[in-house]
Structures are given as C-alpha cells and as structure tokens.
TrEMBL record, chain A:
<dbReference type="InterPro" id="IPR003197">
    <property type="entry name" value="QCR7"/>
</dbReference>
<protein>
    <recommendedName>
        <fullName>Cytochrome b-c1 complex subunit 7</fullName>
    </recommendedName>
</protein>
<keyword id="KW-0496">Mitochondrion</keyword>
<comment type="function">
    <text>Component of the ubiquinol-cytochrome c oxidoreductase, a multisubunit transmembrane complex that is part of the mitochondrial electron transport chain which drives oxidative phosphorylation.</text>
</comment>
<keyword id="KW-0472">Membrane</keyword>
<dbReference type="InterPro" id="IPR036544">
    <property type="entry name" value="QCR7_sf"/>
</dbReference>
<comment type="similarity">
    <text>Belongs to the UQCRB/QCR7 family.</text>
</comment>
<keyword id="KW-0813">Transport</keyword>
<dbReference type="Pfam" id="PF02271">
    <property type="entry name" value="UCR_14kD"/>
</dbReference>
UniProtKB/TrEMBL annotation, chain B:
<dbReference type="Pfam" id="PF05193">
    <property type="entry name" value="Peptidase_M16_C"/>
</dbReference>
<dbReference type="GO" id="GO:0016787">
    <property type="term" value="F:hydrolase activity"/>
</dbReference>
<feature type="domain" description="Peptidase M16 N-terminal">
    <location>
        <begin position="54"/>
        <end position="148"/>
    </location>
</feature>
<feature type="domain" description="Peptidase M16 C-terminal">
    <location>
        <begin position="213"/>
        <end position="379"/>
    </location>
</feature>
<dbReference type="InterPro" id="IPR007863">
    <property type="entry name" value="Peptidase_M16_C"/>
</dbReference>
<keyword id="KW-0679">Respiratory chain</keyword>
<keyword id="KW-0378">Hydrolase</keyword>
<protein>
    <recommendedName>
        <fullName>Cytochrome b-c1 complex subunit 2, mitochondrial</fullName>
    </recommendedName>
</protein>
<dbReference type="InterPro" id="IPR050361">
    <property type="entry name" value="MPP/UQCRC_Complex"/>
</dbReference>
Length: 120, 460
C-alpha cells in the first residue's frame, strides 16, 4: 500500500458510511444497487454465471419483501463485509473496455507503411 | 479520392518486385519445380515445413492432430475450431480481426476428420506477425464462458442444422461411422444437439486445447515462405506451447483403425443420397498405402472433368439421368481410407444408379475394361493428385498431418510415381477385394424407393 496512514484514516469512515447506507441490513450487496436499465449492465447480467445470477435475484426479492413489510432482516442474515464483493463491476468493466477499444479502433487513422508509401 | 489504379499501384509493384527477386534467387541450373517439395525442420520441438513458392503471398497453417477422430468428448473439435482467433490474454478478438484486416489477410479455422487447421493467408512480408498470432492462439486463448455462449454455440448449432439439411453429408458421415465405428467414424458435425448441450463447456474445451496444442501434436506449415525465416520465427513464437501433454491425455483415436462395414438407412424428406463405401488406402505417409485405389476411384469417377461430355469414367456414362450426381472419392487418412461413391438425385434414379455402380465394380473385377480406360484413369488420378497437392490449402493440411503422424511431409512426387506404377492386374485384384470385403452402405432419403445393400449384390 502506498499511503497506509490515509487508508487507516479513511477506512473507518467508509465502513461507517456503508453501514449507514443500510443495504447490508436488507441482505443486499453493493453491486445489487447498480442501475440495470441500460445495455451495458443488461449484457453484464446476461454474462453472469448461473449461480451468481440466481443468488442475485434471491437477494433482490428478499430485500423487496423486507422493504414492503417495513422490516430489516434478522442480524445474522445481514450481508457481512467480506461477502460484499464486486461480482458485477468486474464484468461491467470488461464490457466497457471492450466498447472503448472498439471506439478507439473505429477512430484509427490508417497510414501506409513507410516502405510502400515511398515513390507515390 | 484515390482512383482504383493509383491505390493498387503500390501493391502491383510490390508483387512484381517480389516475383523478380524470386527468380533471381534461383540459380540458372536449378530445376523450376524444386520448390514443389516441402523442406521440413524442427524448432525447439515444434515441427514445421515450408516451401519457397514464388509469389507475393504466403499461406501459413497450424495443423493439429485434433480432428473429430481424436476428440475425447463429442463436439470438442468443433468447439476448439470456433474458439480460434478469439480473445487471447494479449489482444481481444476485435483487435485480431482489425489488425489482420489492416494487413489484408484472411484467417480461417476448420477441421477435418483427423486435423484441426488454423490458417492465415497474407502478404509475404507479414510472416512474423502471423507466426506470432498462431503461437498466441495456440497457447494464450482465453476460453471465456460468455464467449462460448454468445459466439461459439450459435456456430456449432448452425453447423448442426446445416448437417441435418444435407442428405449427402449425412450419408457420407453415416458410411464413415459404419466403416470405422469410433475414431475415424465420428461425424464431423454434431449429428444431434447432445454434444453441445450435454458434453461441451468452456473448461472441457480448454482441457482439449492443452492436448491439441502441445508441441508433439501440431505442425506449422507455410507455403511461400523462406525456410530460414520460417525456422527463425517458429523458434521465437512457440515458446509458450507446452512441450509435452501436461494434462491427463485420453489418447482417444490413437489406436489403429479397424474396418467394420455394414448398412444404415435413414429416412429424410429433404433429398435422396446413397453412399457405397469400401476399405480404401491410407495416405502415403501411412502404412497401408495402395495407389491402385486412387486409380480405381477415378475409373469409377462419376464427374466429368471436360465440358459438354459425360467424361470417360464408368459411372459418368452409366448413370441413369444427367441430373443424377455421382462422385467417387478415395478418402485417405493417416492409417486407413475409405473409397466411396456418392449418388444424389431423385429416389428412382439414385436406386438405379446405385445398382449400375456395383455392376461397374464387378466388371472391373472380371477384367471387362479396355486398356485405354485404364490409361485414362491413371492419367486422371495422377493429375488430380498433383493438382490437389498444388492447391495450396490441401497440400498444407496433408503436409502438416504427415509431419504430426509420421514426422515426414507429404511428398507429391512420390505419390505421382506410385500411381504411374499401377498395373491393370493390380486394379483388377483391388476391385475383386472390394467385393469380397464387407461394404459400408448408407441410404438417406425416401426409403421406400432406395435399395438395400443386399439387393445391390453387396456383402454387408
């Protein structure tokens, strides 16, 4: 780590914020909150392994139920910090870098090789 | 805007200067056909062969011993072929496509019964780029589940649908499976959806790739490349391929092929095809090479090589109607072969033509053919063989598979010599032995009209 003192200072703050956000008390993970109404995330959801996709739907439904009945999950079912992994963000980053590469290549200027260009 | 002639001038000049350089390199007394032979070599365990064919383009192929014969689970070869040129750890699919487009190249991956071929055609100067690409595809492809689901499975499914729609390819595959059972008999496309719904997934394809692209199991062949340069680049770019098979190898398909024979009838509403097959000759690099089978194949023939004439071949003249398609092929594999006649057309014509085909073989066996016909057949067989070998693509695969199986490239001149030496007696005895053996007969189509093998007078 480059600046351990900074991490020591900011991490408790971040942990407090995540807890205060409250999604863990509904059994959700941070990646469950990503807005899914766009093509990139739709594609990412399609690319999830079947088990991950199933678990995601289960968590969302459970959270809806809790929300509708104005209740929180019992404490032992809250999402633990080590379970809160970026399972969807990885896929989204991949898709975005793929799209970026396509755009970059689309904007490429084709030049002749110096050997062939000579004499024209 | 650039006019067409301006844009092309550079390429034309490049082509011209290449051609001039080629002829200058050859000494005065050197034979013009010297480049017909492949030079083979070994670079850090990778077998390679090249021939310095004069011309501005190069065809490069990686021939791997991973055809349908060698797949431990059904569909693996197809899966691996469709994963070729997809994202590697170094570049993405898109980058590979765009870069090759910029270099004006063509990329292709296909499989046959014995081999999986990754092929690139490009301008001579780009050899290092494409040797690197093939090395990368072989050792660094990422077998991602989403690529499998989004890009590979639809292609396998399309091949399956195409296979089911073609009675002739169904009949040919069925004849092979009758003749060789497992191994060589495995169909080249998925005959049902089971292979890719039940057996295939990215991790098994990755496992198979470790067998297929281990150094002892593939060869790199180039047509139109300098041997020294080729050796240099192959040396450099195949370091990441494992030098032995590291995973547990199932050794599927490596046992000596045995001929069985039999009959199969499949109902099909989309057309009619009959395939009559007999044990044939192996490739010249294999053990049971019989040049007379090739001559017998061209004597039976079926397709004319000349316009406005049925040709000299016996089946070409004897087929019931001009609209009936007949064709005799001597399919050669590394350790066995199948001589088969395909008959396609309307059910009645196919039935009658099948009967005449068997009669024709009986006639050859009893010696009722003229010397002239034999001479013509020999000339055609020799021409076809040489033309086939000159056809770059076929030559590449044969050479590569010869290297992988017997560590000797396929030399056309030897084949031509062997065909020249076929006598009329040898031809007769070959035809006789066909009738004594069990045939492999497959009928696909209107089974009410298509004959049984026994009715044709064949032993099954």
């Amino acid at each position: 780590m480059r600046r351990p003192w900074l991490s020591r200072w900011v991490k408790p703050l971040a942990e407090w914020y995540v807890n205060a956000a409250g999604y863990r008390k509904l059994g959700l993970r941070a990646d469950d909150l990503i807005p899914e109404e766009n093509e990139v995330v739709q594609l990412a959801l399609k690319r999830l392994p079947p088990k991950d996709a199933y678990d995601r739907v289960y968590r969302l439904r459970r959270a809806f139920q809790c929300s509708v009945s104005h209740q929180l999950l019992p404490k032992e079912q809250w999402t633990k910090p080590e379970e809160d992994t970026p399972y969807l963000t990885n896929v989204i980053t991949n898709i975005e870098s793929e799209m970026k590469e396509r755009e970059d290549l689309e904007a490429m200027v084709v030049e002749k090789r110096s050997k062939n260009a000579a004499g024209h | 805007m650039l006019s067409r002639s301006t844009a092309c001038r550079g390429a034309q000049r490049a082509a011209r200067s290449q051609a001039v350089r080629q002829s200058q390199r050859r000494g005065l007394a050197a034979p013009a056909s010297g480049s017909f032979q492949y030079q083979s070599g070994d670079a850090k365990g990778v077998k390679f062969a090249s021939r310095d064919f004069a011309g501005p383009t190069t065809t490069l192929a990686l021939v791997s011993k991973a055809g349908t014969r060698y797949q431990p689970l059904p569909g693996l070869t197809e899966g691996l072929a469709n994963f070729a040129f997809r994202s590697t750890t170094k570049r993405s699919t898109l980058r590979i496509v765009r870069e090759s487009e910029l270099l004006g190249a063509e990329l292709r991956a296909y499989h046959t019964r014995e081999n999986l071929v990754l092929e690139a055609k490009f301008l001579r100067d780009d050899l290092p780029y494409f040797v690197e690409l093939l090395g990368e595809v072989a050792s660094k492809t990422k077998y991602e589940p989403y690529v499998y689901n989004e890009e590979v499975v639809p292609l396998i499914h399309a091949a399956h649908v195409r296979f089911l729609a073609s009675p002739a390819s169904m009949a040919i595959n069925s004849a092979h499976s009758l003749a060789f059972h497992r191994g060589l008999g495995t169909p080249t496309a998925s005959a049902s959806t089971t292979p890719y719904t039940k057996y295939l997934d990215p991790s098994t394809i990755e496992y198979f790739s470790k067998i297929a692209f281990a150094k002892p199991n593939f060869a790199v062949v180039a047509n139109g490349a300098d041997h020294g340069a080729m050796s240099n680049w192959v040396n450099e770019f195949f370091d990441d391929s494992p030098s032995t098979v590291e995973v547990e190898d199932s050794k599927t398909g490596s046992e000596q092929t045995k001929y069985h024979g039999g009959e199969e009838r499949i109902a099909h509403a989309g057309g009619n095809a009959v395939v009559i097959g007999f044990p044939g000759s192996s490739s010249i690099t294999g053990k049971s090479y019989k040049p007379e089978i090739a001559v017998l194949g061209s004597l039976l023939g079926g397709q004319s090589s000349i316009k406005w004439s049925p040709g000299f071949s016996i089946l070409g003249n004897a087929k019931v109607s001009p609209s009936t398609y007949t064709h005799t092929t001597s399919a050669i594999y590394s350790d066995a072969g199948l001589l088969y006649t395909v008959i396609k057309g309307s059910a009645e014509n196919v039935a009658k033509t099948a009967a005449t085909a068997v009669d024709a073989i009986k006639k050859i066996a009893s010696g009722e053919i003229s010397k002239e016909q034999v001479t013509k057949a020999k000339a055609t067989a020799k021409f076809k063989e040489l033309e086939y070998g000159q056809d770059v693509l076929a030559g590449l695969e044969l050479t590569g598979s010869g290297l992988v199986h017997g560590s000797k490239p396929y030399q056309l001149d030897e084949v031509a010599k062997a065909i020249d030496g076929v006598s009329e007696e040898a031809l007769k005895s070959a035809a006789k032995s066909l009738l004594e053996n069990r045939a492999s007969v497959s009928s696909v189509g209107d089974l009410f009209a298509l004959p049984y093998a026994e009715d044709l007078g064949l032993k099954v």
